[in-house]
Amino acid sequence: NLLHQKSYxxxxxxxxxxxxxxxxxxxxxxGASYKPTFLGTVPHMNEATALEVLESACKAYGKGQxxxxxxxxxxxxxxxxxxxxxxKTKREEVVKLLMWEIGKSLxxxxxxxxxxxxxxxxxxxxxxxxxxxxxxxxxxDKVNAHIRRGPLGVVLCLGPYNYPLNETFALLIPALxxxxxxxxxxxxxxxxxxxxxxxxxxxxxxxGVVNVIFGRGREVAAPIMKSGRIDVLALIGNSTSAxxxxxxxxxxxxxxxxxxxxxxxxxxxLPDADLDLTIEEVLTGTLSFNGQRCTALxxxxxxxxxxxxxxxxxxxxxxxxxxxxxxEPGVKLTPLPEPNKPAYIQELIDDAKEKGASVLNKRGGExxxxxxxxAVLYPVTSEMRVYKxxxxxxxxxxxxxxxxxxxxxxxxxxNYGQQVSLFGRSIKQLAPxxxxxxxxxxxxxxxxxxxxxxxxxxFTGRKDxxxxxxxxxxxxxxxxxRTFVASxxx
Length: 490
Ligand code: G3H
Hints:
The chain is α/β, with parallel strands linked by helices and 490 residues long. The protein contains 15 helices and 25 strands. A seven-stranded mixed β-sheet has the order 15-18-19-14-13-21-22, sandwiched between helices. A six-stranded mixed β-sheet has the order 10-9-8-11-12-24, with helices on both faces. Strands 1-5-4 form a three-stranded mixed β-sheet, covered by helices on one side. The chain is globular and about 70 Å long. Glyceraldehyde-3-phosphate binds next to loops.
């Protein structure tokens, strides 16, 4: 079924869009010969319309005096509960679009939907707790302080294509419940799947509180930033877009940033690692959703003493993975939503081969129009592009190491600092490594792959990987400010 999104949401209304439309295609092809599938259309909005939408969000915020930022906590919760219950009725539609638009497997698409619903309920519970806490007074030197949490203003939210529902909502939901008004722009791939939910937004929140724009970032998001009327830029995606948008804002010191950016999470395999477990975890960590996760393992460091066995068994295991359409049972690898991704991954493979690496697995690099089979590259060196770039796709660089201290120096020199996975049995050996690693990254995974969830845990990174922290608990704080009422005892 084609989906034509012929309007945008602004000021609590669906405003018909009469202008140019952008066509949305899936890289999935079901015919005998390859042909991208046409899925529908979305408005190609322009600067003037984007600024009208901005006006709607600013009006609803009313410089902090609007209906939403001043609403009672219980009423804001009721609005969010209404939204989530209407959202749940759209599960089938959204899951289907997740599969078609971004090629996410059926189990992973269902998981993304259910996890997002759970995230909303957890956020509501956390918000209630925050409210209970703010009922407590603090007292010092005869001053009573009643601490509250207040909204920040108008938030511009941009989510990524790999989690177009979950990560867009990981920004949107906490921003909303704290009393901010929001403009969000869906990701280019994964734009249609938010359409079934727009009515629930319109029905559940006062007018102008949730607004949606479509189109190119530089044509719609950049002018909104340039207006200087955005208080928070919330983005999960790449740092180039984040910096470009941030740079548009004329008063940068007033702008709060909540950013989830790139990472190059390493797996470190120590000589005493349990190889059965390690191979399965590294497989999931590197190739879940074809490696298109900021939390994916993007480089594997294997100790010289076990590299032969690891490389052989891991390469065999990669070749056993099944490629197919997202709804087919047992499929682990699926079409890539970005049409230029197979060519980019091929460039990384060619570059590594020219500089001395080999492809360890038989199927590595097999290509079709919408996919490239993951290549295990060994030995990778620091001169290779695959070592330096965040591949965000199916290619696995493996680098040997013998001296753990030099490896720690290498990891400390990285521009990224999100997570690491450590594989080994001896606690005596792992303990000092953990102590160092927690100062280099923000999450150390023991004998398990890197991942974001469960979403109640802090999700952040050091250096170029993130600004601010997203977890159910932290996100409410990221999108608000502590204020208080002080009264003096005489
Ligand atoms: O792209 C980054 C996502 O937050 C990854 O989430 O680790 O749960 O797949 P995940």
